[in-house]
Design brief:
heterodimer, A: mainly alpha, Four Helix Bundle (Hemerythrin (Met), subunit A), 8 helices, about 0% strand, flat, B: 2 helices, about 75% helix, elongated
Chain lengths: ~200, ~70
């Protein structure tokens, strides 16, 4: 009887929060993505299309590997998610600006894409302010847009239907940012307990 | 400076784009199918639905772009 009571109280007690160190395998992989950027710049500067494609491909693959590492080594953390999002912004933002600066991608659509990316980041801060806590709005559509952005850089480095891919990307991005803006600015913010992961 | 011939490089980027794009469309359709019967008034379900539609659009663009690149369209 006593053991049952003890077991019940143990079940009722909140589980201690596991502290994940900032320096862990997943974050190391995320940080290693930055190492591809100087090589990408070197390849674009020299006009080495194949090498540039290989480096942006490596950067995109590492983006997938860090999530895998977090699951394998059980080191998922809020910081890791934020760091991953920041790394996405820096790596793909840098890549887009780089290929445009060297005339490998059209300036018009890239300006729209980068502007919408900045707007989306601002909206996320507004959402956090509305929520009154550090929270990240999980957008299923924007996750796909980010992956496609990596591809856009690859299309520019490989010279693959560049104008077609960049101009078709613009309406998709506009629709997604408009949908997310409504969700972040107008719709009610879900309570913290029921917040999505 | 190259490490592949133009034709091989062209084939690899085509496979990487059309292959992933096509698989992506199928993947999103499967996920959409799983949402059938879910409460569409739930904002989370609507977000997922919208995300999958965007994913399908991106996948189709990838396949169409690859076909254009190879002179099929």
């Amino acid at each position: 009887m006593a053991s049952t009571a003890t077991a019940t109280s143990e079940l009722a007690a909140p589980a201690p929060r596991r502290v994940v160190p900032i320096i862990n395998p997943a974050n190391a992989v995320t940080a290693s993505r930055f190492l591809t950027l100087p090589f990408l710049w070197w390849a674009v500067d020299r006009g080495y299309h194949q090498w540039a494609t290989l480096f942006i491909f490596t950067c995109a693959i590492l983006d997938k590997v860090d999530g895998l590492m977090a699951r394998v080594f059980d080191c998922k953390s809020a910081f890791g998610e934020l760091f991953d999002a920041i790394a996405d912004g820096i790596c793909f933002g840098f890549g887009l600006v780089l290929v445009t600066a060297y005339g490998w991608a059209p300036l018009g659509p890239v300006s729209v894409i980068v502007s919408l990316g900045v707007l989306n980041t601002i909206l996320r801060f507004v959402y956090m302010k509305r929520a009154g806590r550090a929270t990240n709005y999980k957008s299923y559509a924007m996750e796909r847009i980010v992956a496609f952005t990596a591809y856009q850089i690859g299309f520019a480095t490989s010279g693959m239907e560049v104008r077609f891919f960049y101009w078709t990307f613009v309406p998709i991005m506009i629709i997604t940012v408009a949908y997310d803006a409504k969700r972040m600015l107008i719709d009610p913010v879900p309570p913290a307990s029921g917040a999505r992961p | 400076m190259t490490f592949l011939s133009d034709s091989v490089f062209r084939m690899i980027v085509s496979l990487l784009t059309a292959g992933v794009g096509g698989a992506w469309v199928v993947h999103e359709l499967v996920l959409m199918n799983r949402l059938r019967g879910a409460n569409t008034k739930d904002p989370l379900v609507r977000d997922q639905w919208f995300g999958y539609v965007i994913g399908i659009a991106i996948g189709v663009i990838g396949v169409v772009g690859t076909l254009r690149f190879n002179g099929v369209l």
